[in-house]
Amino acid sequence: MPVLAPPAELSQDSRVGAPAWREAAQATTRRAHHVTDRCGQEVVTMWQPKASVRDPHVARHLCRAAYILPWRFRVEMLKGGSTVEKPPPGDGVTLWKGKMKPPAWHARLPLPLHRDARALQTAEVVHAHARGARLTAARLGRAQHQVNARLRQLQRQREATDRRLSQVRKGLLVNQQSVKLRGYRPKSEKVPDKADSVLTWEKEELKSMKRKLEKDMEQSETLLKALASCRDNLGFCCKERLQAVDLMNQPLDKVLEQAGRHSWVNLSRPPTPRPQGQKTPPPDPVGTYTPKCALALYEAKQLLMESKDALVEMAKNEADIGERQHQMSDRVCASLAQKMRETLELKERMNMTLGLMRGTIHRCTKFSEEMHITRGLIKGPLSETHLETREKLDRPLVRVYQRHVGTQLPEATRLAQGTDKLQRHIAHVEKNLDKLLTTHRHLTQSLNSKKIGQDVDANVVRLRLRQRHSHIHYEQAQRLVNDWDPRTPPRHDTCADPE
Predict the structure, then answer these.
(1) Res 205 pLDDT > 80
(2) How far, in Å, CA of 231 to CA of 147, rounded?
(3) Cβ(147)–Cβ(227) under 8 Å?
(4) What pLDDT does 271 receive?
(5) Could you tell me the sign of the dihedral formed by the alpha carbons of 33, 39, 45, 51, in that order?
(6) 358-401 pLDDT tens trace
(7) What is the CA 93 to chain-centroid distance, rounded?
(8) What average pLDDT does the segment 81-101 reach?
């Protein structure tokens, strides 16, 4: 094989060509070498990574060896003393056979498949936008579902609070009925007592409960309107995001599951199967997660937190008020029952006193009649012709004895004094008998008043026990109140003396 030997250097004297001509040729050669190196380097750098620019001060073979050194597999020592080769971290294509992992190369010039690559890139952008729009729509739909569920909870709690408010209003009507019924008692039984104080206290407490429940109803109504507006806004935003998704290849719940988060607004969500979910992207006016969607989700989150606290407060108030109302009703019924027991005790004493007075009146009447008979016997017959001889003051024995001045008998004086004393005693007995009869009538009237008062209190207790059941509605209790007028209570004819 022939070997090309370098041309021998000729001396300055043996050269034929001119020095300028030779220098021009060498300059042209040097420029050609520079252009060749530069173009070759540029061509190579067009197909190499950005960090692969060769250092002009390092030889080519050393530069290449230092450049591909980070691509080779690394040997790591395990606990048992064995070794394992692992590829270096980072992006790139792993060559397991050559035990190298070169980084991804970036072409600086369009490739032959540039048109298809740009079409694929456009498709990826469109798909990414569709996925983002679908994920945002899924988040908005889930938030709308949670807001709708909270609306239903709030509506049910409002119904329970409204029922409790109806019970409180019915309690006010029952209190009014109790006061009106007790207004039908006789005047002697209308002395203010502890039962009246308990009824007044119950009225004030029920009014405060009514104001508290009405305030809860107003707040819940405001929350309902805000939640309904937020739900409509979320639905509008969800439909607007879904305009970029014509074909829904999977449900929105699956999209949220792939994203690793079941909800973006519910703070008490269950743990997701993935350790870390996708974070909320920043709002982008021209992206899939617009500031309007972010504002709608933030408003939904705030309303859910506020409505949660409101639900807890409403449920607590409703339960506390129901228990307090039941305790107040029991206390009023216990006070009225105590008043009835005291009235019954007084009735028994009055009844015993009436029995004793009745026996005394009978004895006094009989004694008065006997005294009237005695007075008639003492006074004698009405006609003088009916007098017997022994009853005459001028009978012979008396006339013979009274012939002398000093022998006057006191029979006539004694008869007049006895008759006068008996008449005064009869008048005193009749006066005492009148007092006994007057006291007896007053005691009988008081006893009848006590009976009416006890019956009224018993009717009030029976009315309260019947009206506090849940099957008695507010309208039924209201009809009873509208039919009464406490300013004109009926007259009790039973208070008159039955004798």
Answers:
(1) yes
(2) 6
(3) yes
(4) 46
(5) positive
(6) 888 898 888 888 888 887 777 666 666 666 655 666 666 666 66
(7) 62
(8) 85
List the structure tokens of 255.
Answer: 């999209």
pTM above the 0.85 mark? no
pLDDT band at 139 (very low <50, low <70, confident <90, very high): confident
Dist. CA 369–CA 403, nearest whole Å:
41
Q: Which two tokens stand for residue 7?
A: 């041309």
